[in-house]
Design goal:
single chain; 1084 residues; two-stranded antiparallel sheet; 1% strand; elongated; disordered N terminus
Length: 1084
């Protein structure tokens, strides 16, 4: 007969086991005799090595070899422990309970060794009877009563560890009808790092005790001892916290973990309900202290984690829905709705068994009055132990039992709700990841087990869960999102819909107050909660709340208009304002694209004097245009961006949370099949501010009112800022419809659920079932791809762009001009605010053009939006405001990337006819468009495409030459320099083209000759008439060479003619040396 030794991994026979037991007993006998001698004379040196050797023997021996000698080994260890406690205790106990006083004090090293041996023995052996457990508990209780001044830290920690080992050695019996089958037996919220504690203790009974120890622990006979130990463990943890930095973090953690094991082993609401007020209040005190303590035992991260999980586990057992059916006054069918995964028939049977009269091991439940309201630690050790064994019936203190009526459950849940609301929201933002993970486990357990009993706390628990779903730690956020997805799955969604609706309304109502308040972390948490609620509720939920009536939609958008408004734009600190102030110098990446060309064209003399053979080298430099991949563009020019004024309101993180909500609004209107045409209806609400602004500007122009007085008029400045906020909101709503936004939400609310399953063991379930999700929340947030929906989106963007590109919007001033100056200097400061507000509006509108392009893709150009907005973007490249220039530069790069062009130059060349047409149209009205010369020079210089669009520049150059005449300079003297800049850019392009023309012509001629030679050789091989080929060559090559020369000459004359025409118009008074340049160009 053989069996495997699980600890050593070896194969041993029964005879080997007997021999091993004999060997172990022989050694135990020696060590036990030495321990008894040590008890009589603790200071004898010859016994100093006994305890380490005994500990080594206990660790190396299997459980089967130690179990028969448990009593034999326990006897000297408990005697030494009792002696150590007795000589340290400063309290006097009754003589009948006291051992004779030992003549010598047992030192700390001996006691520490005794406790280590006792812990190892309890880990490997199980107690054989209730009497044996009572004796061990009695000795450990005396040790746990010692204060820090009486016993060392190692002593007190060793006692608690021994008690934990005793609890872990208790296992359910084989009787299927025993009460021990009602409990899980281990802490339900045990973290993965603590699973090792589940494996401690013997795995089975070789011979079961006559009485089930777990059932005895759950009985009312043991209630006093259970309550006393709950009080001792909480007091031990609190004592270490009160000692400050001298307190032991390890002991505090051990006390909380042992308490969790004790609660799990008791495991029934009947046995623990009486002690709930004291336990919950003590745990709440721990959570309160953690808000102010960041160091020492009170600030221990591990200790706080254990306290959070312990509190949740206690509430999950006492206030579990299943255990309070009678008190909840509800039918089992309703409860089954809350726990659909439980089998109804099994639940009914278990519930009937729970309510049967209990009589275990001959004990009788005695009910007396006046005990339910007493504090736990008023139960004395002596009375608890006497009642525990039923020795002295006269000392019975009364039943430690609470009848959990409906009134008791309501009052208890109300008090618990107050305590949880005062602590849990603050722990959500605790800096330690481990604490937040513990809180998440607690929330999952409470929402799973106490859905109805803690109905007043459900809203708060859901809000905390939403905050954790946006946690910075991926582990925390992913776990929270998994549980949220489970809660919002179709099988449980009905249970949370009412809570979610109430939470949605409450968050919307409080959002403006917290955003405009002084505590940004609170505002961020509220915004994140709202974002998570909307996402997991789905688009139908949001549409139902938005489109119930136009008033509801307007009220919802007004809340966000207030949150994103500029009302507090200058309310920030001066340091923050100065640090955020942009530099007066800026760098545009569009200029970097032209550097290669500048290096080539800038050396004019070297180019003109260079030999034709050197041209290919320069040509290679020019061909190396700066290219960028779309992914790099998205990194450098990320859209959408935080509006410039929000920097003084909140952080980037807060804006992303608020913007995410608006993006979900736009996405929901396109994802819900019932909301056809709703996007335009909702977009018209903020678009009304822009329309009102356009109307106000038109009235101002009609009445010839100055900008200062218009801005000074009541409401005009506010209207301008409201238009900026409305534009920002429209941009975010439209961006929500894009594929980039859908991908962003998929990354933000990533789910690690495999095969759409949730493992609910960590959520506090006694069984190890897997619960399948019926659908994924992400599947709801998909943009409708039907043709009608796309047309609706294009129409909506078209109506927005119509207001964005309105001339009245771009007529708003950006800088001080003489026409704005008024005799009354009081309006000067207001004018400065006007410039700033206008710049912000223009910047947001330009960003919106790029966002709309990202959303529509190729449809942006096919719908005509690219042609109508490209000129505006090029025009703003020369704006006096750097932020606007930078925004235009960024959007141009985005347009180029999304349209499939390598650079902005390629984009402009492909659409140059529309750009030049707009330039020509505005050149005819320079009084209304004085910025056109600068815009023309900027387009040719910054983008670097002048040499590619020279054939289209004939009409603009004629208008330029007219403006450079004496009459034109007299009418627009301030435009002379900008026109000369444009002429200079075109002259550079002409030089560039002239230098490359000869090389291109020769290359073309060589290519033609090569092709003609191939034709000639083929003809010679086919016909064999070699003589005629020379004749054909003489005839054919002459017109080709003549055509190349003619093309070169005509094209050069066309290019140079434009420049010469302009220079000659301008020569008489401004360029005395220009005739020589013209003569040189003509001769060339």
């Amino acid at each position: 007969m053989e069996e495997i030794d699980k600890r050593t991994g070896g194969c041993v026979t029964v005879f080997d086991e007997e021999a091993q037991r004999s060997s172990v007993f022989a050694q135990l006998k020696t060590y036990c005799i030495d321990l008894l001698g040590l008890l009589q004379n603790p200071n004898v040196n010859k016994h100093s090595s006994t305890l380490p050797q005994l500990l080594r023997l206990l660790r190396n021996s299997p459980s089967s070899a130690l179990q028969p000698f448990l009593d034999y080994t326990l006897f000297p260890l408990l005697l030494l422990l009792d002696a150590a406690v007795d000589c340290r205790s400063q309290q006097k106990v009754d003589s009948e309970e006291k051992l004779p006083k030992t003549p010598h004090k047992v030192n700390d090293s001996v006691v520490e060794g005794v406790l280590q041996c006792l812990e190892e023995l309890l880990n490997k052996c199980h107690l054989g009877s209730v009497d044996q457990m009572v004796v061990v508990l009695k000795k450990l209780t005396y040790g746990a009563l010692l204060s820090p001044s009486e016993a060392a830290e190692e002593f007190r920690e060793g006692v608690i560890r021994c008690f934990k080992a005793l609890l872990l050695s208790l296992h359910p019996c084989s009787d299927e009808s025993c009460l021990c089958k009602q409990i899980f037996g281990s802490p339900p919220l045990l973290a993965g790092r603590d699973v090792q504690f589940l494996s401690k203790g013997p795995t089975k009974y070789d011979s079961e005790p006559e009485e089930c120890l777990l059932a005895f622990l759950q009985s009312q006979t043991a209630s006093a001892a259970v309550g006393h130990w709950l009080s001792l463990l909480l007091k031990a943890a609190d004592t270490e916290a009160a000692r400050g930095h001298r307190g032991s973090v390890k002991l505090r953690i051990e006390a909380f973990l042992t308490l969790r094991v004790l609660v799990a082993k008791v495991g029934t609401a009947d046995a623990l309900a009486f002690f709930l007020p004291g336990v919950v209040s003590q745990f709440t005190k721990v959570l309160h202290v953690s808000k102010t303590m960041i160091s020492g035992a009170a600030g221990s991260v591990e200790g706080l984690d254990q306290a959070i999980r312990g509190l949740a586990e206690y509430l999950m057992i006492v206030l579990q829905d299943d255990a309070n059916l009678s008190g909840l006054d509800m039918s089992r069918n309703i409860l089954t709705d809350f726990n659909l995964n439980m089998d109804k028939s099994t639940q009914s049977i278990l519930e009937e068994l729970r309510h049967l009269p209990v009589k275990v091991q001959g004990q009788t439940i005695i009910a007396t009055e006046g005990s339910s309201g007493e504090v736990v630690n008023t139960v004395t050790l002596k009375s608890g132990l006497v009642q525990m064994r039923g020795i002295d019936s006269g000392n019975v203190i009364g039943s430690l039992h609470v009848k959990r009526t409906k009134d008791w459950i309501e009052k208890t849940s109300t008090h618990v709700d107050k305590l949880l609301c005062a602590t849990f929201p603050h722990i959500c933002v605790h800096p330690a990841k481990k604490v937040r993970q513990g809180l998440l486990a607690a929330i999952r357990g409470l929402l799973s087990k106490c859905t109805y009993t803690l109905k007043e706390s459900r809203l708060m628990l859901l809000e905390c869960l939403c905050i954790l779903a946006c946690d910075d730690s991926e582990d925390v956020s992913a776990d929270a999102q998994e549980f949220l997805e489970y809660l919002f799955s179709s099988s449980r969604k009905l249970h949370v819909e009412r809570d979610v609706a109430a939470m949605f309304d409450r968050l919307i109502e409080k959002l403006p107050k917290v955003v405009l308040g002084s505590e940004e972390s609170l505002a961020l948490s509220h915004a994140q909660q709202l974002l998570v609620v909307i996402y997991y509720s789905g688009p139908h939920f949001l549409v139902d709340h938005l489109l119930r009536s136009p008033i509801t939609a307007a009220r919802f958008l007004d809340v966000f208009a207030l949150c994103l408004s500029q009302n507090s734009v200058f309310a920030g600190s001066l340091d923050k304002f100065i640090s955020a102030r942009p530099s007066s110098m800026g760098y545009l990446h569009s200029v970097a694209e032209l550097k290669a060309g500048i290096r080539f064209i800038g050396a004019d003399q070297a180019i003109m004097k260079a030999a034709p053979s050197e041209f290919p080298k320069f040509l290679g430099i020019q061909d190396k245009e700066i290219q960028y991949a779309p992914e790099n563009v998205r990194k450098d020019y990320e859209l959408p961006r935080m509006p410039p004024w929000f920097l003084y309101v909140g952080s980037q993180k807060l804006y992303h949370a608020l913007a995410g909500i608006l993006r979900l609004v736009g996405l929901s209107l396109m994802a819900d099949y019932r909301s056809e045409g709703s996007l335009t209806v909702v977009a018209d609400i903020p678009l009304g501010y822009l329309r009102k602004l356009v109307s106000e500007v038109r009235e101002k122009e009609y009445s010839n009112e100055s900008w200062q007085s218009w801005y000074y008029r009541n409401g005009s400045g506010q209207l301008l800022r409201q238009a900026s906020t409305a534009s920002c909101m429209l941009n975010e709503m439209i961006f929500g419809v894009s594929n980039q936004a859908v991908d962003m939400f998929a990354r933000m609310f990533k789910s690690r659920i495999k095969s759409e399953q949730i493992h609910e063991h960590e959520a506090g379930y006694a069984d190890d079932q897997l619960y399948k999700l019926e659908h994924s929340v992400l599947h709801d947030w998909k943009v409708c791809q039907e043709r009608g929906a796309r047309s609706q989106l294009i129409d909506c963007i078209g109506s927005i762009l119509h207001e964005y590109l309105s001339p009245e919007v771009w007529d708003l001033p950006l800088e001080h001009k003489p026409s704005l100056q008024q005799p009354n200097g009081e309006a000067g400061d207001i004018t400065l605010h006007l410039f700033r507000d206008t710049a912000m509006l223009h910047q947001v509108i330009i960003d919106g053009i790029g966002i709309f392009n990202m959303c529509l893709g190729q449809d942006f150009a096919s719908s005509g939006f690219l042609h109508s907005s490209l000129y505006l973007l090029l025009e703003n490249l020369v704006c006096s405001n750097f932020q606007i220039r930078s925004a235009s530069d960024a959007v141009l790069h985005v347009l180029a990337a999304t349209s499939g062009y390598l650079t902005v130059g390629h984009l402009v060349v492909e659409n140059s006819d529309y750009v030049i047409d707009s330039i020509c149209r505005q050149l005819r009205h320079l009084d209304l468009n004085p910025h056109v010369p600068n815009m023309l020079a900027a387009m040719l210089s910054y983008i670097g495409v002048a040499h590619k669009i020279l054939p289209l520049l004939e009409e603009p150059m004629r208008s330029v030459s007219l403006e450079l005449e004496i009459l034109g300079r007299h009418q627009h003297p301030d435009l002379t320099i900008p026109f000369l800049k444009a002429v200079a850019e075109i002259s550079k392009a002409a030089k560039h083209e002239a230098c490359l023309m000869h090389t291109k012509a020769e290359s073309y001629l060589t290519d033609v000759k090569s092709k003609m030679s191939d034709v000639e050789n083929k003809a010679r091989m086919d016909s064999g008439r070699c003589s005629s080929s020379h004749y054909d060559d003489d005839i054919d090559m002459f017109p080709i060479e003549s055509g190349v020369r003619l093309m070169h000459r005509v094209y050069a004359l066309l290019v140079h003619g434009l420049i010469i025409h302009a220079l000659r118009r301008f020569t008489p008074k401004n360029a005395p040396d220009a005739p020589q340049a013209c003569t040189y160009l003509e001769s060339y």
